[in-house]
Specification:
Oligopeptide transporter, mainly alpha, two-stranded parallel sheet, two-stranded parallel ribbon, oligopeptide transmembrane transporter activity, membrane, transmembrane helix, 804 residues, OPT
Length: 804
Amino acid sequence: MDTIDIKPKGPDSDTSSDKLKHDAEKDGFEVSNAGYVLKSDGAQAELAGIPEPDEGKVVHNAADIVTQVLSLEDDPSLNPWTFRMWFLGLGLAIFGSVLQEIFYFKPQVIYVSLVFLTVIAYALGEFMAAVIPRKGRIGKLLNPHPFNLKEHTAITLMASAGTQSALATEALAAQQLFYGGYPSKAAGIFLVLSSQLLGFTVAGTLRNVLVRPVKMLWPANLPLTSLLETFHGSKAADAKTVVKKRMKVFWMVAGALFVWEVFPEYIFPVLEGVSIFCLAHQNSSVFTNLFGGASGNEGLGFLSVCFDWQYIASLGSPMWLPLETMVNSFVGYIGCIILFMGLYYGNIFRAQDFPFLSQELFDGTSNGTNAFIYNQTAIMTPEFLIDEAALHAQGIPWLTATYLGYLISSNVGLTACFTHMMLWNYDDLKAGWEWAYPSELKKLFADPHWYKFWRASTEEEQDAWAKRMNEDERCDPHYKIMMNNGYKEAPMWWWVCALLVSWAVGLICLYVMHSTLPWWGFILSTVFTFVFMLFFGAQAGITGFGFNLQPICQMLAGYMFPGRPLANLYFTCYTYNTMSMGLTLARDLKLGQYTHLAPMCTFTVQVVGCLVGALMNWVMMAEIVANQATILKSVQGTNIWSGQNIQQFNTLAIAWSIAKDMFSIGAKYQWVTIAYLIGFFVPIPMYLGNKIWPHRAWSYFNFSIIAWYLGWLFVGINASILSYFLVGFFAQFYLRKYRPRWFNKYNYIVSAALDGGTQTLVFILTFAVFGGSGKARPFPTWAGNPDTTVHNLDYCAVSTINVQ
């Protein structure tokens, strides 16, 4: 017999528990008062106000997804605090952070899939539960009960917090490669730790805006939540059948991808980007620039087809990206191809004197045959400040036209985001500053204990909070369930203390490292992080699109700290990096909410994972930079290692350090700065159009996303883009609309399986044959693995511009 747990909404409910029990018992259910629980058989607690799941219903919005696709079942008795959780959580945090740092130095940055780590955690957790005896004190300590959902979620969150490549390591790598090294390894380690933890605490203080509302869907969590629910599905007989079917699909797809990826990754790398046009015409540089894209910084990859899921899903699986976001990105993608080809073949900004795609600074003596990398060392003093006399003697550096296109379009998109969110999503954002309203401040100071931020909430205050959440229509149903089942929030003072400690450590480290960033600049970095987190965090939560804020952070630093490239690097580290980390951890807070993990447990595992991962990031960065320095400084790198991210970071740091000569009004690249102003006005016509002729189409197009994608292809391997959109539109349009039953049951599981199978194999190959263990073992050259000194991987012509 199935069970449904019943509990009234609150003390003001018109329907009593007795009546609910009577009605449920009439329908043949056993009833308890543990709280709202929706079992997998589809039974429901009417007073929860949540519709019964219908696998054949087309999902239209966030509320549909969190109630129709994700389970609302909860068991508060499940215990996450086990030896298994700590052992596997720490182990996977270390493993994931090492792997992610390796991937960061690849020609195309690949992000370690949480699905990959979740699958490993499940296999190891079940293994430990099966083989460790449960008898005796030791047995009860190491294996107290079967491996459960909340234990698994806690492991996943700890691994996720660790599996981030800290931008602080990029700043340290740049200082090591281009500035003669940094003075203190200990300070470098603590700098990485503080920058990562600071982002986490900023996200935590804004969780009322970024996590709790139902609109903040954080789409990347959907395949992962679906996978966790499948692994730990209901034990009811009919639910077991569903779980078995989903697990069978998962393992079949994951196994198939594990085997398949050996070919595009190692044996047959031509499959990374098959271009019919390049195969037909192998000696045309125009074809290379437009249709090529299988090698790093080769071309735009237009109409190329990729068969390598690692690159198709390098920025996240297209199977979970919302259709609206995908449409906007596709519009921007087509615009990017037109823009870049127009810039280059129109020879705008002397485009044809430099490589088609590159992030380096170039000397003005470059021509269409030889491109000379700018000698940045010659314009710096021993203290790493810009020497004005040397700068004017050597001349102002040049950038490639495509890189300028990226800077201009992304700057337009960045400020457009502020306007778009204020016009279309003001109600979702205003909670972020409601605390500053006079009425709220009056309430705060009316409390005689207002200054005691360390004071724990009383039971009455906790009940009052739960009641407010239940009555708030914007609140996620999963969070309501947690409040009704008695979960206690992690106190705000936990977040505040972690923020203050990480901030103080960061300030000390910056002075020890001779960063040239003043104390007031560090304060401003924290202020900007909060503002950016509010706007761009909300956009990421709603659309799944995360904005790259690195250019604007470096621009701000350039004007605040002119002539100080190191200050630029570290200011960006404590703005862009902290915000990126904050977005990741806000997403993970939402995952904890979807799986009903106690907030105090979520806080603990995220802090621990964050610190462990940051430490391992530094270790791997130091090792890679020491062994691959020459390759990391080269423009193209190899198909194994690349320093493109460090080069881009350093390029912008130097360029913005001489902003008055390069980007200010009247300078040759003034449109990079003017773009910020233009962006504020770009979303306004659509909003006014909706006011005059109201229609859903006006709000469908998000010009902040479109503008960013106008510069999307400025770097990396671009041959996978067409396949990315084909898969995404098939899943989010055809399957969601015309096969909703299959979509609701299997779409996110298949997405998880594709990621899991692929990244398991990539990890093995990294250490077995790609040189991750010290020695590379390349596959013999043949038609499917061509000599890239003669042709690119897709047989497009190699660039004739010699970079020196």
